[in-house]
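Q: What would this chain look like folded?
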Amino acid sequence: MNLTIERADLLKCLGHVQSVVERRNTIPILSNLKLDAGDGKLSLNATDMDLDIIDSVGAEISTPGATTAPAHTLYDIVRKLPEGAQVEMNADGEGRLQLSSGRSRFTLSCLPIDDFPVLSGGELAHEFTLTVAEVKALVDKTKFAISTEETRYYLNGIYVHAAERNGAQVLRAVATDGHRLASVEIPLPDGASGIPGVIVPRKTVSELRKLVEETTADIAVGLSETKIRFSFEDTVLTSKLIDGTFPDYQRVIPEGNDKKLDVETKGFAAAVDRVSAISSEKSRAVKLNIASGILTLSASSPEDGSATEEIEVDYQGDVLEVGFNAGYLLDIVRQIEGSNARMLMADAASPTIFSEVDDPGVLYVLMPMRV
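A: My prediction, written as C-alpha cells:
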C-alpha cells in the first residue's frame, strides 16, 4: 500500500474514528485502525466489538492495499505535523507502516489485517431516513437522562421506538436514570413503521452526536433486532444494541397533575442556577414555593448560608412547596427551547411533568426531593 494524502483531510478522518478505540485493550488488534486504500480513497475502520465506524477520505493511491496501525499513535503523529503538510504512507507487507512528511519519518508496527474483526456490513431489516436536525433533537433532549449505573444496563442508552400520540404515528426516544425521564418525538419517517423497540448504547449516542455536527446530509438509518447503522456522506457507524428490556416508562408519567405553572424558560434557568450556588454539595437541593403569580426559589447549606429569589409566573392553583435536585432541574430546563416552560404538579411528593408550551412532543418527568 502506498498513498499520499493532505494532513488536514487525514486528521479529520482520524478524529472521527479514533475515539471509538479504547485506551486499554486486552485484545491487541482492537487498539489498531484498519487502513484500506483503493479507488482514490483511503478508508479508516475502528471498532471496540460493540461499535464500528468506517470513514473515507480522498487520497492519491499509488499502490492499493490494506494494513492496520495503532490508532492513538497514528492520530497523535498526524495531529502534531505542521498544517498544510503532505503525508505519505507506505505499508511494506511485513508488519510495518512507514509514514513520512517533510523531514519527519515514522515507522509503526502493524498487526495482521486478517485479525481485524468485521462488525459492519450485512442487511438490516428496517431502513428509514432522518435529517440532521431530527437526530440532534432526539439525542440532545434525552442523552442527559441516560443512566450511568452499570447494574441496570438496560437504562444505559436511549430507547428508540415507534409510538402513537393523539392518533399520529411518531418516532419516540426515551431515556431515564430513575430520577428523571426525558421523552422526545418526531413524526414517524417513511419505512419506520413496525420497527422493533431498541436501546441504543450511550457510547454510540455520543459518537453519533459528534459526527452529525459536521454534516448537513440526511442520515440513512438501518435497524434490526440486534444492530443499528447510521450512514451519511463518507461515514458509516454500526453498533450493537443493548440486549435488554426497557421498562414501561409510561407508568412513570403521572396523569393526575392538575396544578399548571408556566414560566419564562431562560429566566427560570438563570434563577435556579444562581440560587443553587448556595445549596449543599451533597444534596444540591433547591426549594420551589409556588403561590399565585410568584415562584420563590430558595436554597441553604449549613456551611454557606441561604439564598432566595422571586420570579413572576403564570399560576392560579393552591400554594405548593416542592424540592428538586438543582442539577437535575437545570438539565431539564436547559433542554427546553421554547420561550416558556410548563410544569404540571400534583403535590410535594409526586413526580412533576415539564414540557415546552409550544412543542407537545417534548416531555420530561422529575422526581421531587424532601427539603
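The longest strand covers residues 157-165.
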